[in-house]
Design a protein that fits this description.
The chain is an alpha/beta fold. Helices cover 27% and strands 18% of the residues. It has a 6-stranded mixed β-sheet. Strands 1-4-7-10-13 form a 5-stranded parallel β-sheet. Strands 2-5-8-11 form a 4-stranded parallel β-sheet.
């Protein structure tokens, strides 16, 4: 995204709230979003935990404790080391899991039950580097979607509800099924008419 980053935490909060209002048809006011959106609360807690994590060893335990508290409060589990972009919306929130080395781009929409998990074949320490997915800008992951391993879900891609992704999803593609297969490809970004991107709504099934 080419937009200028927020200049203050107030602008960042406003941007987050506006993103929820834009993507969630069940949200009716900023006050409602601020007070009742568990996905938004989870993201705010993650930002604080992420900052603590990058203070070094002294911040690791406080970061994990904050993430643990946020999980109990929101039903969303995000490792403090995970990298999450701007204007990300976690709709409904419950059951979302984002692993340690996951990267989530800007303007991503995650429905409840989404998992960005790792694939580790051996004991702890045998696998180095990134072991969780990268999700590109403006991607949409449907309810119950599971993306495992060091794979990439491309920009403007869509993952259907309940799909299990074990390989890369190209930019602009839609992946459905277990294991997921590519059923459509798009060459443009999301249009102004919302997250459907001109594709059938069934794969991501907004339960709002």
């Amino acid at each position: 995204m080419s937009q200028q980053p927020p200049r203050s935490w107030r602008e960042r909060v406003r941007e987050d709230v506006d993103a929820v209002l834009l993507r969630d048809p069940a949200a009716h006011s900023r006050l409602e979003v601020v007070l009742t959106s568990p996905g938004l609360h989870a993201l705010w807690a993650h930002r604080a935990a992420h900052a603590l994590w990058h203070r070094g060893p002294s911040g690791r335990l406080p970061a994990r404790l904050l993430a643990h508290w946020a999980r109990r409060r929101t039903g969303v589990e995000v490792h403090p080391a995970a990298r999450i972009g701007r204007r990300v919306v976690i709709d409904h929130g419950m059951g979302v899991v984002i692993g340690e080395t996951a990267v989530v781009g800007d303007d991503v929409l995650l429905y409840h039950g989404t998992t960005l998990g790792g694939r580790v074949s051996g004991l702890q320490g045998e696998q180095q580097g990134r072991r969780h997915p990268v999700v590109g800008d403006r991607a949409v992951l449907g309810a119950g979607a599971t993306v495992l391993g060091a794979v990439r879900v491309g920009d403007d891609a869509r993952v259907g509800a309940g799909a299990v992704v074990l390989a890369d999803v190209p930019d602009g593609a839609t992946a459905v099924g277990v294991p997921a297969t590519i059923v459509t490809r798009r060459t443009t970004g999301l249009p102004d008419d919302g997250p459907s991107g001109g594709q059938p709504q069934e794969p991501v099934a907004d339960p709002s």
